[in-house]
Amino acid sequence: MHRDSERTKTRIRAGVLTLICIAMALGAATTIAGTFQDSQDFATLSQATSAGFTGLNNQSSIQNYGFSNTNNASGVAGEAGGSFRMEASRTYYADTTLNGTLTNADNLSAGGAFKMTNSASSASQLFIAHFDPTPATNQNILGLRIVDNNSNAANFRFQAFLSYSNGGTDSGAIVVVPNTVTSFSYVFDPDPDNNPITTPGLLTASFTDGVTTYTSSTSTTAALPASFSAWGLRTDVLGGFESANPLTLFIDDVNYTSIPEPATAGLIVLAGWSLSSRLFRGFGYRR
Prior knowledge:
alpha+beta, Jelly Rolls, eight-stranded antiparallel beta sheet, 2 domains
């Protein structure tokens, strides 16, 4: 009788652990959107295209950016970039297949190698960012904005930038950066002190040359929604265009937050089942 009672208790403990493990696995599968990182090294045009990178209005006589078989950013052939100018309508070269839609309730980040090859521009603005590729104006963009309007060939300016679905924006201080910087990054934390009631999000964008880091940060408006289904290079929409002196820059070896494919999420669940079976053996559960 005592043996049967102990066996029953063991089975109950195993059953509880099963539920915990399944809940953990399913929870990871549904919330991993804020932590999963995709990557791209632009080794070939076909590779980048297969990964979801595509362009919209990004190639004209003056503005011409996208995949480039050059080696400015990382020293290895294959990168994204080219010449950029202000446009009357949106243009982009980006991964438009993030397997779903991210929002400003997710932890988001991106980074990679960077090279500015011409910053002597009279008026050029562009984003390296998560964004919604469908709006005709500057809505639903999160990342960093390069805001250059000077003829100084030695530096450029940037800021952390977030625009919402209603067109509202939050942006950090504009920071002057030398052209010698070699990498970029940005990190968005929707709840930096784990208090969603009182604390807004925090967006921090940076460039570094390996010695000095240049940073622009902004608090964000938690009550305003924003959604993003693409990541990459996007020009600013300003109702006109700058016909001369486009910026030229390149990025490579990038990583950025996306959503895992369903098969990946399924592996997480299987991992949960595997973990639960190991725990059962640890409790001495036998049929």
